Here is the input.
Amino acid sequence: MKNRSLSYMFFVFISFVFFLACSNENDEQFPEAIEYESVFIGNQEWMLENLDVETYRNGDTIPRLQEGQNWSELTTGAWTLVTYDGFDGLGYGKLYNWYAVNDPRGLAPEGWSIPTMEDWIELSDFLGGETVAGGKLKSTGTIEAGDGLWNQPNSGATNESGFTALPAPLWYKFVIPPGAYAKWWSSNEFDSEFGSNVWVSAGGEFFANGTFRKYSGLSVRCIRETNIE
Here is the structure.
């Protein structure tokens, strides 16, 4: 009877250890959900900041662009943070290539998605169209005046949408410093070499769309997923 009791206690102990191991493994694979600040613009809910994650939705690590490595060498997902003298890159979000944006593991956190061109166009239309929407998206102020992050003149900037677009750097064949543009990927592919993107500029209040080579490093702004019944 005593031996049977000891065997049962040993079985319970092993089962408990196994349960803890599985729990820890699941915790690592599926990170705890993070609450992101957001802003409602029309019928859409947007993240209030550019994306700043280092893992895909399933917990897999997104490789960081290594020093001396060129974006043009990549055909898989990667991110980077532009830093140089006097600029640490913090607060602008990370720069991702289009391969990370469209990786099947999911770049956008749970409950969010990468906006399509249709999503961006809906945003622009709600704010009055492409000729003026950029000004309503941009944060106000300029570097020269000491009251903002944009280069002069930051034309038409009101941020009345609450989107607070910041002039993040971007990485193409070289770094384009912060201050002049805010450029975001869409989930749409233009062709085998280019992905579609949208952008605003310090030089105008327009909201434009264009294309960038898929290996380029641009900002990402997520939109809340909607359930389609």
Notes: Helices lie at 2-29, 98-101, 117-126, 133-137. Residues 38-224 form one domain. The two ends are 60 Å apart (CA to CA). The CA atoms of residues 65 and 80 lie 5 Å apart.
